[in-house]
Description:
5-stranded mixed sheet, 5 strands, Beta-carbonic Anhydrase, Chain A, alpha/beta, globular
Amino acid sequence: MTETATNTPAAAWQELARGNARFISGEARHPNQDAARRDELTGGQSPKAVVFGCSDSRLAAEIIFDVGLGDIFVVRTAGQVIDDAVLGSLEYSVDVLDVPLIVVLGHDSCGAVTAAIDSTEAATTPNGFVRSLVERITPSVLSARRKGITDVDGTVEEHIAQTAARLTEHSRSLHEAVEAGRTAVVGVTYRLAEGRADVVSSIGDVEG
């Protein structure tokens, strides 16, 4: 993030959106990736946003938003599935690091969401711990179905919005931070072909 960005949810999102625009246009600057930045960060970190995203290898947040070392705090699970470790990490970023923005980042053609859709349709569950992932995504699949959404990408967007809402529902700390205006939660879907990060939901003020 640039030094001129202020510590508000809107400013943080605007900075990420500008970085994504550079990435899309092929004009990425790759900021804060040199030795001087490494030295600057040895005393601590002050990221401008936390990105809670899918683990998919095509979803590298620092590249998508054209940021560098120390700019964003990243938490990733397959299908951006919430668990206690995720909530603890997000609470740490907001309460200790004073991060003003949480980005829930999903993407089209998500394998985890596809698995949850397939499981719902076949009334079966995968083996091992993949079952836990699918079970945590299934409520979003059912919510999408109730709205008449059956395709994968539409279900991904519903899952992103549902996940963003669950963060503040399950964590009192995050709920209070949003209520106080200290942070906001924005749900974003990433278009693999275009490289575009589109907002699909928001909780709190990200417009400024």
